[in-house]
Amino acid sequence: MRQLKPVNVVIAGGGWVGLTMAKEIASRTSLSVVVLERGHSWKEQYATGMDELDFAFRYRMMQNIAEETSTHRHSLKSSAAPIRQYGSFNPGTGVGGAGEHWAAISYRYPPEQFTLAAFLQNRFGKARLPEGLAVQDWGVTYDQLEPYYWSAEQLMGVGGKAGNLNGKKIDGGNVFEGPRSHEYPLPPHKQTYLTTEFEKAVRGLGYHPYPIPAATLSRTYTNPDGVTRPACAYCGYCTRFGCMIGAKAQPSNTLLPVLQKKKNFELRTGCWVRRVIHRDGKAEALSYIDAVGQETVQPADIVIVASWTLNNSRLLYLSKIGEPYDPATGKGTLGRNLTHQVGVQTRMFTDKTLNGFMGAGALGMGIGDYDWNQGIEAFPGVLRGGNIRAMGSGEGPISSFGAIPQGTAKSDWGSQWKKAALAWHDKTTNIVSEADHLSYRDHYLDLDPTYADKFGDPLQRMTLDWTDHERAQGAMLAQIHNQIAKAMDMRTGGATRWLDKYTVTNYQSTHVNGGAIMGTSPDTSVVNPWMQHWQMPNLWVMGASAFPQNSSGNPTLTILAVTLRGADGLIDKYLKRPGALL
Predict the structure, then answer these.
(1) 205 Cβ contact partners less than 8 Å away, ≥ 6 residues apart
(2) How far is CA 276 from CA 16, 17, 281, 540, in A?
(3) Which residues are part of the catalytic machinery?
(4) Which of the listed CATH numbers 3.40.50.970, 3.90.1150.10, 3.40.190.10, 3.50.50.60 matches domain 1-53+93-141+265-338+509-582?
(5) At what angle do helices 556-568 and 142-156 cross, to 10 degrees?
(6) Is the predicted pLDDT of residue 87 greater than 90, yes or no?
(7) Would you say the pTM of this structure is higher than 0.90?
């Protein structure tokens, strides 16, 4: 085992969270900062790597599940099996992590999400809430996070239209959003034929359309750190791809340009972190396997765990930090409140050519009339809704081929199917929704007793299934989808994602949350509202693993807001007086 010289700060994970923490610490202090990333840099491949088969279907930018995966079961009585192929989520690897291949949709969470336990009880009464509901308040409010939301939007160059500016509702923006202190840094994207038709249809139905907030630049932009990026070229290669020109906000083009100028920063790739080394209530180092296979220990005064959701919890489990959660008793904190996201997608067909190959990952038009707590009164059993949107994300030639109306061909192969697929190519699209996923007592993470990774360490086990509430959400959203499709004069092909049983084979977003949740008490949470571990004041566990439940929409902006607040806590409070933050 190789023992390295101590540094001030060591960070596990080189994605949005890890590199944001590194930028804040290295820029605002003289502390030495080392980031350990298991993958390599992708940036040099973006200009020549727009291969749809390789990146979109062979998942070039994702973690290698032959080396490490997770297992899944539906309940405590079920047997778990390893996830052997990419399905419901696609965790990224390499410098930038999933922040390199994301679509760049940049929603804020609504104010009530941060005090959801109290909100639901006040609105519905305890007797109407589902048995086993485990939602918790975050320990931080929307008002406290709002300045950090604004900082994150400036960092990435988010474009959109405010719908609630300092309490004033503005038509054309999302009038249901929480109050914003500023207009978006950039205007929204130019809209496509599809999204303008969606906007006209929903406005005619009495809904309130707004452009999807996007971190794919609508024009050339220089952020507060002096990093300049060009405007989006609408090539359509966003989701599962890194941006070839840098228009999409990614850690590699927003954070690394700042960090690479810092002499007190070091990024090490090919470093597979396996343990947090600790003693007597203090984190002392990260242990990892380096790029040549040597076991290495990096001592540090401050240790930050900033990998993807499931990896964060697994690293704490493997390091024996914290009390594992027991769903039978409700005691313990590590692993609790696992959530994903409730997704519904309805296929639509039209006689018009859509030019769907042009677009940007976050270009779209949505409505919030059934999101969060809006519009749900007419749907018994629904406690939280979801966004509804039409996207002009750009369709690849392979992924866009083959969708045909039901009954058009006898099977999904052969000459009849090929003829129909050619006839309907570029005349089909989707209405999509993402809804809140509430946390439940029996949905959690632990270590699998049977399966291990390539090093022999136990895999992370997910215990998760849909409940009647998620099925009610899906039925509500599918009904509204069909109403909108009819108003757009399009025929539907049915809801292509349904919610009978949770499945690991159908993609449902990479928005997996929980496992190391934040809160106001060590009895019910792993980290405090500053993201500091309750039991180890010099250990910080950052990212969506801290979210007690999941809202609708992409969590990245909220992840960054919470990270920036955590950085303030570490720099402005902890460094001045090391110990537990109040």
Answers:
(1) 483, 484, 487
(2) 21, 18, 12, 11
(3) 511
(4) 3.50.50.60
(5) 110
(6) no
(7) yes
